[in-house]
TrEMBL record:
ATP binds at G8, I9, S10, G11, S12, G13, K14, S15. It comes from Paraherbaspirillum soli. This is RNase adapter RapZ. Pfam families: PapZ_C (PF22740), RapZ-like_N (PF03668). Residues 1-163 form the RapZ-like N-terminal domain. Keywords: ATP-binding, GTP-binding, Nucleotide-binding. GTP binds at D57, A58, R59, S60. Residues 169-286 form the RapZ C-terminal domain.
């Protein structure tokens, strides 16, 4: 059976991800206590289900500790288990809860004898939840949704679902340093030292996927030297990541605005590796 576990920080988009999987033909269960996971798998097998997606989070904190061993047992039994951990920056989460006027799930948890007036603040809830899920985050692929629209998150989840049969998927992602480094990056490369097409008025409105920008960067020796260094680094260490049983490796390339140089680099790297690896490309700052 193919099993996808959706978990992560409240407000980071787990419901959006689960709906994508439901549309892809998965039988989906939301807010399942982890201690019930193996029972659900057994029942689903009996009923002939081949695709199962489960969402769980800190609301089931009391049974989270056993989740890593349950996942390993399911893998040992021959199931294809993938874990997607969704997260976002604290300020982004606060903004989302404020916009929706929803309360954080942990705000309703009271310790014995605690006065209801002393409930945790939203920020305290988010920080507590991060601590509770720190071991779970290490189980799979982390997706930073801080700057993602719902549509873009749906697209990213679809890409990951399409590539999950590969032993390891290479994700190349461009980003702008001025908006922060992606939380889900495994390797980060800074290309801000390269000449910037932004200062050419004809190239400014274009992106690193447009031919005039590509031609501009193609002819610069320093650009090709850095591109070769990044390509060689990834090539050298990719077998080690595969040997570590990684399902995903996210290589993030950043420049100032995330429009020209980093986009160009990601496109070139993706083109190079796509003949030998399963590749997904992301451009965080592009619409």
């Amino acid at each position: 059976m193919r099993i996808i576990l959706i978990t992560g920080i409240s407000g980071s988009g787990k419901s959006v991800a689960l709906r994508v999987l439901e549309d892809a033909g998965y039988f989906c269960t939301d807010n399942l206590p982890p201690k019930l996971l193996r029972g659900l798998v057994a029942t689903s097998l009996h009923e002939g289900t081949e695709l199962l997606a489960v969402a769980t989070d800190a609301r089931s904190a009391d049974s989270l500790a056993g989740l890593p061993s349950d996942i390993q047992q399911l893998k040992d039994e021959g199931h294809d288990v993938k874990v997607f951990f969704l997260t976002a920056k604290t300020e982004a989460l606060i903004a989302r809860f404020s916009e929706t006027r929803r309360s954080h799930p942990l705000s309703h948890r009271l310790r014995p004898g605690q006065n209801p007036a002393d409930r945790l603040t939203l920020t305290e809830c988010i920080l507590n939840e991060r601590e509770m899920l720190v071991e779970i985050e290490r189980l799979g692929n982390t997706i930073d949704t801080s700057d993602l629209s719902a549509n873009k998150l749906r697209s990213w989840i679809s890409d990951l679902v399409d590539t999950q049969q590969a032993p390891l998927t290479l994700l190349f992602e461009s980003f702008a340093f001025k908006h922060g480094v992606p939380l889900d990056a495994d390797l980060v490369f800074d290309v801000r030292m390269l000449p910037n097409p932004h200062y050419d008025l004809k190239l400014r409105p274009l992106t690193g996927r447009d031919q005039p920008v590509i031609a501009f960067l193609d002819r610069l020796p320093e650009v090709q030297d850095l591109l070769g260094d990044i390509r060689n680094f990834v090539t050298k260490w990719l077998p080690a990541f595969k040997a570590d049983n990684r399902s995903y490796l996210t290589v993030a390339v950043g420049c100032t605005g995330g429009q020209h140089r980093s986009v160009y680099m990601v496109e070139q790297l993706a083109h190079h590796f796509q003949n030998s690896e399963r590749v997904v490309r992301r451009h965080r700052e592009l619409g």
